[in-house]
Amino acid sequence: MVIKKQRPSSGELMTLACFQSRRNSRKKQEEGALTTELMVALGILVVTMLPLAVAFTREHRLIQTSYQKSVAMEIIDGEMEILAAGEWHNFQQGTHPYPLHAQAAKNLPTGKAMLTVDAQRLRLEWVPEEKGFRVTREAVGK
Known about the structure:
- This protein has a four-stranded antiparallel beta sheet with strand order 1-2-3-4, with helices on one face.
- 12% of the residues are buried.
- By secondary structure, it is of the alpha+beta class.
- The protein has one helix at 10-84, and strands spanning 94-98, 111-118, 121-128, 135-140.
- The longest helix is centred in the N-terminal third of the chain and has 75 residues, at 10-84.
- It contains one helix and four strands, in the order αββββ.
- A hairpin with a 2-residue loop joins strand 2 and strand 3 (121-128).
- The chain crosses the membrane at residues 32-56.
């Protein structure tokens, strides 16, 4: 048994086209609203995450600077103890570059240590090449 499909009349076609047109229009409106909602959500996310990213970057720099300063203080303190114990006799009076022997010195920013010998007064100072912190220790040699 073969069933033939009947063609819809022109009135039925018009009704069907209007119904589909309304459905497509509603679907497009829903998609537009969804896209707008997504863009607003992304905007809120960006607005909240940017200040956090900036804060994390600043905190990282602060922690790195604090770490480098504490390393410089430890190294200069240790070297000053050695100098005050009698090592300073190997240097003449005046200001001299002082080589750092600690392995942790590679964690410091570029700079140099300067030793100043004046009679029995000793001054050891870490001086960075760029703008930054200075670490200074003074002692009386034995």
